[in-house]
UniProtKB/TrEMBL annotation:
The protein's name: Uncharacterized protein
Positions of transmembrane segments: 205-225
Cleaved signal peptide residues: 1-17
The entry's keywords: Membrane, Signal, Transmembrane, Transmembrane helix
Domain of life according to the entry: Eukaryota
Length: 289
């Protein structure tokens, strides 16, 4: 039993030793099928794309998901790399990979009686999160061969720095064994990913900006109402855009005052001087005549 577990562990190591990627700019799901009781850390999973059992040559049997781009990730002779999600929507995504992977005799001998495994994923709620999400095999049925599994993941797509930084975190997982009395020649991996996009929370400064915009809009509407509906005018320049105390904003700024000058100060003296000048001119004309 110990020897078979060791063989399984050594066979699974290449599946975890995936080519490292930039963990701050990837849509890969980091995780592995691991031997229960053998310690693994989140740091060891970062950069390791989930590949199931690491079987090469898998094909996608879900015809409705071909246009999602899943098949583009299934390179002949290489293991697949689980990525989320190829057809995102504003509210999230629900994507299923129905993979059929051919088995060699060696792979068959290791997998069909596989037990004591757990599925381990990097939680990644943020880029420094060291938490793990673990789901374990349900109790296997004695006398049946393991011919596949159904894995369901609840994932969240994160982004920062205006999209320059993005990553995928796993919130929950569950796995069900697919068993049969017949020896399998292909191994079935059905992986469903349900992505949930975090609700958008606007900055509190947007509320201040919106409040200021609404106040400015209401004030402009009020100024327009006074000038064009009530026909009020600036007492200084006759503008209809009366801003405050019968003055327009331009006259307030240019005159450095908030109130219109009293009529006597503002216009009566000039008017009386003009009348006196006219009377003087009229007297001069009369005396000349």
């Amino acid at each position: 039993m110990r020897q078979s577990a060791l063989v399984a562990l050594l066979w699974l190591v290449p599946a975890v030793a995936q080519e490292l990627v930039n963990p701050q700019a990837t849509n890969q799901v980091f995780g592995a099928i691991w031997v229960k009781g053998v310690k693994i850390t989140s740091d060891a999973l970062i950069g390791s794309c989930f590949q199931g059992y690491g079987l090469p040559g898998c094909s996608n049997g879900n015809g409705t998901s071909q246009h999602y781009g899943i098949s583009n990730q299934l390179v002949p002779g290489r293991s697949y790399c689980l990525q989320c999600c190829s057809n995102p929507t504003p509210t999230g995504n629900d994507e299923t990979w129905d993979l059929a992977c051919p088995l060699t005799l060696l792979q068959q001998s290791v997998i069909i009686n596989d037990i004591s495994k757990e599925y381990v994923f990097a939680r990644r709620r943020n880029l420094t999160d060291t938490g793990l999400v673990v789901c374990q095999w349900p109790k296997r049925t004695k006398g049946l061969y393991l011919v596949g599994y159904t894995l369901e993941l609840v994932v969240t797509e994160y982004s920062a720095s205006s999209g320059a930084v993005f990553w995928v975190g796993v919130d929950a997982c569950s796995v069900t064994a697919i068993e049969s009395t017949a020896l399998p020649t292909t191994f079935t991996e059905s992986i469903r990913m349900v992505s949930v996009r975090p609700a958008y929370t606007p900055s509190p400064y947007w509320y201040f900006a919106l409040g200021g915009f609404l106040i400015a809009t209401l004030f402009v509407a009020y100024v327009g109402y006074r000038g064009y509906m009530r026909n009020e005018h600036c007492v200084n320049c006759a503008s209809k855009l009366v801003f405050f105390h019968s003055l327009c904003l331009l006259c307030i700024l240019c005159g450095c005052r908030l109130r219109a000058p009293p009529p006597k100060v503002f216009c009566i003296e000039a008017y009386e001087a003009e009348l006196a000048a006219r009377a003087s001119d009229a007297s001069s004309v009369s005396s000349d005549a």
